[in-house]
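Journal club side-thread
Mid-discussion, someone asked how the predicted structure for our own chain would compare to the paper's figures. Pasting it here so we can look after the session.
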Amino acid sequence: MKTLVSIAAVASVLASGAFADTYKWITSKPQGAGDAQAITTQWFVDQFAERTGGKHQIEMFWGGSVAKAREIPEALAAGVGDFGDVITPYFPDLLPLNNTVGFFIPQPMGAKAVGEAMEAWHAKYPQFAQELAQQNLYAVGFRPLESYGLLCTKPVTSVAEMKGLRIRSYGFAYPALIEAMGATPVSITTSDAYEALQRSVIDCTPIGPALARGWKYDEVAKYYMEVPFGASFGHIITMNLDSYTSMDAETRAVVDQLGHDYLLEYSRMLDDDAARVRELWKGDLAVEVIAFPEGELEALVADEKVQAGRQEWIEKAKALDVPVDDVVGMLKF
């Protein structure tokens, strides 16, 4: 009798785990980074296990151990991972709609508002999701970057004083905008910018306080200008589309709700982190925060080259039947 009871107990345990799944999350972010991205990624993982009642879990593969940042969309599409961080500015040709904000710097929204705009566009315009679906990808949630200013090795108090400076550039809008300032855009990766500032290869870089501290740029550049670039869009928390659609409806609902809740948690932590850094700047880090004349940067939007970059996105969006006026209206000052 005891044997039968034992067999039944084992069978029950096996049956209870038969439908349990462990999903793989691949990211280039180091686990020990200690920033808002790393901390809230772990929050998502923990919440997923909790909200599915332990039925499912996510195993993290940190630090590019499975795929480097530029390899992640392809790796996800192939099913190497189930979840992953797609850094949209790295893929301008692959994801023009999901890079919309990157064409419209400067723009007036902060991080949370940019994330909410991405949510709204995905909800209203199926073309945004279709762009990802063509790569066998699905957007779970959105991780905007913080509002950016300009961190420099020398004080700059106006657009006129930017003339002749060498400023780090990337993406769509920044090269034209920097030229409109009278400065020289210099293409340098995030990881190389510390040394570039230290060696005076560049004078400034667009960045926010939290990222400036995270990359320790504020050790070698001690002037932060409140230039109103607005928030850039950064990452999509992405799933392999087949992995998502193969989930049962209850688990898909958990994932979708988590994607929305993630934006709120991440934005709150990002704001807290930026505020913390600003306090550190007042102390031993001794970074001077400098106000910037209202309207000077915004006036550069009228520059011919800046407008050409925006028009490039408009033409691509029109070709996909996206209501461009609705989208662009959110990105105007």
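Post-session note: Confidence is low (pLDDT under 50) at residues 1-18.
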